[in-house]
User: Fold these one by one.
Assistant:
Number 1:
Amino acid sequence: MSSMEQDKARRAVKPYRTQERPRSGPFYQQPGRGLSWGGLAGRVLVAGAGGLCLAFISLPLLALLGRVPFDTVWATLGTPLVLDALRLSALSSLVSLGLIILFGTPVAYGLGRGQFPGKRVIETVLELPLVLPPAVAGVALLFAFGRRTPLGEVLHDLGLDVAFTLAAVVLAQTFVAAPFYIKAARVAFQGIPRELLEAAAVQGAGAGAIFRHIIGPLALPGIVGGAIMGWARAVGEFGATILFAGNFPGRTQTMPLAIYLALESNVNAAIVLAAILVVSSFSVLLIFKLVSGRSLDVTPD
């Protein structure tokens, strides 16, 4: 779609403009009016509860970071246990993320923009791993792809053994992390105003041009945010991985599994790996909030 056609599409949806949400609420103080006792009590309650929650979450994390042996961090990072765990976590999580984006994006688009029978059921099934215990996910994957299962026997005859291999790590991470991406991308696609697409179509834009110039750019923040959350969930996966892929150093032992093993033999390595996950998780969440904060809010006049 040319720049002239884009300008026409924007003018066609001019009645839709971004509006600032009205500031209101039980604790909002209107200009020119004093703060009532109820409002003051509400603010104290919110501040106290928020402080307790913040302390409850922060205290264990700060206690962990305070135990990091900074004088031996580099030596610990150079041990085979830590290096293999970092390498496997990076490799498996990136492969899982690629699979999630490749197959999850069309699914999210269809769920976000389409209407068809059974849509709610499909959404529920796809989001089930969000609430499913990881141990249940691992057992389910083992019963589906294990060597003694019908599908596993077929794969074994083809020379493809899945369980207790790196492929099992990737499948476990994909199983538990895909719903995070699909849900975020679906919401992003669903939030695009239909009037905007109709106006572009009226101006002669094709389906490909509409997707490249309108749908893609508007949904990109949600897609990126979902990808970040999906990758973070894949990196931190433990329960499904240890049941379906095992805990074999250098083969299937990712960072969470290495922490579990190192607590019995090398506490410093466990602390360093845990600190890496804490810092990376905080960074990922912060990036997610910065990215997903750019939302489109259009309301008719």
Note: The beta strands are 16-17, 299-300.
Number 2:
Amino acid sequence: MLSLLSMLLTMKLKASMRKYMFSLEILYMQQANGSNSDLVNRYGLKDWSKYPIDVMEDKDCVLQTIEGLYTLRSADSIAAITIDGNDYVITANEGDDVEYGDFEERVKSKDVFVGGSVGYPNMTADPTILSNSSLTEGTSRFFNSECNDTDVETPFCTDDMRFTLGSSMFDYSNPLAPNLYRMVGIGGRGLSIFKVTDSGLEEIWDSGDDFEREGCAAFRWAHNSIQDEEFAPVGGPFYLSLEPDDDLRATIDEVNDPEEDGCEDGGDGNAGACPMSAIMDDRTAKDGPAAEMVVVGEACGKTFAVTVSEKNSIGFLYDISVITSPVLEKVFHLSPASEALNPGLAYGDRTLGEIDSESIQFLSTEDSPTGKASVLFSGAWSGTASLWEFDCGSAGEGEGDGPTVDATTTATSSATADYISGLVTLGGVIAASIML
């Protein structure tokens, strides 16, 4: 039986003509019929001894490999594609955690690694991870609550890193004395590609540190930053739709208060929620860049995968024509105005782009209103949508040395619009940012 913690996606893959059930969040695949109906394959953990990762909330982009650190991939969406007669699954590894009532899976490292012991009653730890005799030994030493208390110089100390209380980190074979046997954080920070074989899933590629390294290189101000529903204006429509005693309403108050989590200048000289640049690096110790959705399609004679980070709106375009060696073609941002303006201000002057792109549609040349292959993004919390089209160069659609992705003209006025297939036309121009 599949876990109730997961969302299920059943799809029939073209090459094998078999049905599979893909579990999102919990991360495994089970064949839905056939001789291997009980076959369960996990997507596995991401090993950060292989790829550099940023774990320090220091307003910088410092990436380093860390021996013994893994993270949950926790896919929020899956795309399936068949290339050269083989089926592949692409996962957008958001890094979500789960909750049951008052129980929350995600905990801070300072609550787990407390000096020489585990910070929960009757729990033990593998000595290679947590030493009870020395704070300078064990792979958890950089995440220990007492890391800064030692006289020995360490490369870094961070006690806010989020870890899981789940079975990927703790062995609950003896429920009275669980053992911490592996260090597992929250957040896959990228995409993964798996080949579907008769024996299950085979990982063939991971984006590694692309999201943090290339995202920071292109949009440093948005590196592991955050914008979501909590940044709504106090007194705005969303805020007023909440009951006075709603916890989210209280959180919005805090996020707009410079004495709490807000800023003295929200972008217009007045106090309010912060622009994205003011809270750069705030999600580094949590889940980092969280890929919300991934879609695949064809443009310019090539096959592409497109995804966007949930909280900081940085997009990534990969050429996956050679499925075992994807190429990152472009890094783009869906809401450049968010660098200097908080969401309320950017929405007010109609420059806000997509925040939390829960829905992305890859449109073929036949389906696109512009006649060119395009990608349609919609923001769950921004109330906006934008259409980006592929520019294949002078050679024309289906040819050219390589694609670029360009947004069409941005709608910046409140002109009356005609709606066609969910898109806005302003004088025949498809709006790049549509205020819904």
Note: The chain has three domains: 1-42+73-95+190-207, 103-186, 209-436.
Number 3:
Amino acid sequence: MIFKPGSQEAVQALQHLYSFVRTDWQNKLGKRSTITGYLNGLYNAHPNSKLGEIAHQLMIVTKMSEEEYDDAITLAEATSSQFSTETRRDNMVHLISLYLRTGQVQKAQSQFNSFKSTYPNNEIYKELLQDMLKSNPNSGLTKTATAASPQTVESESFKTESELPTNFALEQNYPNPFNPTTNISYQLPQEAFVNLTVYNLLGQKIRTLFKGPQNAGSHTLQWHGKNDFGESVSSGVYVVRMSVKGAEQQFVQSRKLAFVK
């Protein structure tokens, strides 16, 4: 079947193909080493289409995952003004994490200032980026707390205690490090909208664990070390971030968790 380069079907086909190749850890297909060239060809052939835009973005992700940071920076800095708002936003996030990874703190700070000016209402990303910059002793940033936008997804494994807590809190996960499952507990003193999401240290979203309204109480869910596609993540340190919007209070807290194989 042949799809038009600008169609949603073509984009979805590329994303599925990319996910399939990149999770072929034993390289049974023999395509892992050639995927970047394939993406580059798509981008050069269709630079002004949605297919080319996604191919360009996947090239950045590939270079980051292969720790070819200079190449990833070059690609991200070349983001076209014709790309969608979402892609330009994501590439700005990539640049900040890449600048920090390569010790370019001033560039990371400058890019973060540009991000705040360009996306003043994107509180989720601003908070995550502030956390990333704050962890660098040269950044001089302080942390602020904000809330998220509404949408509901299903949690992986969930239970609620009956006694009401007095404060919002995200507890340290246990066990930590973990394999294959860890428990994540949090406290809600009032009914609130909760967004509980796992990110990697590059600021990329790995899995949404829970997103929606929730009653007051002490809650526990489990993360099984998988991303939103149901694929097992690689060993490493991840960040679970909880943002809460209640009737009387907003709250944000993050915890680091280590997945080992």
Note: The beta strands are 158-161, 169-170, 182-188, 192-200, 205-214, 217-223, 236-246, 250-259.
Number 4:
Amino acid sequence: MDFTQSGFPDGVSAPNPKSCKPTCYNYNYITVQSFAPLGTSIITITGTAEGGLKKTKTYKLKIQDTPPPTSPDPTTPSSSSTKYSCNETNWTCEEDPNGTTWDICEANCIEGPPPPPPPAPKCKIFDFNINEKTNKDSDPLRVWVDASLKGYFSVNYVCTSCTVTSVPSDGNENWTGAKGTYASLPSSGNVTEPFKINTAGTYSYTLECIGTDPEDIVTNTLFLQTVEALNLPWWQEIIPVLRGFLGGIWR
């Protein structure tokens, strides 16, 4: 881990602490010239790990031209044997038998920046199927040409719109195009769409949804990547007609 420091006033300098491999400790050597201004400065030390991850910490550097007063400051504890730790609720040093010295506690008990807000939820696709089946159940997923099919998808509340497309286009009564564009979604996030595939072939369906953030786009191409539409066998087309024909003869 590499270290850098910043925030020193004029007349004060310090080399960057030596690099070390965690867990480790380091020494900080500070040089103060006679013309350095009196007062307290906030010094920022930054540690950079491999991969670019950075952590920062600040400490106080106080410059004075006379020794500290012999009479104790009412706000500063007088006993050097007393230990202190930082109360991060109000950022003050309080007595703690397991703590450190007052000077170290005071130098490090500085309120840092507030934590970043949690990441916003993303649009998520839960399900995308035809007749309650996906390629996880069958690959390819086989359906009959001109049969009544039920398309279904389910998304979370963050998704605001979705579009279903297929390659190639799945016919006149398809689940794509105008019929597969959902500019608004029900509050449940569940959508059922009846449709048919008019032409035999192999189709690949894609569901694309957009969240409240226009850049939040999620797609599902795996659940219905291979859908094979087959023509109904000739004997299944003849049997319903033949049944009625034979029934007429027997009557």
Note: The longest strand covers residues 201-211.
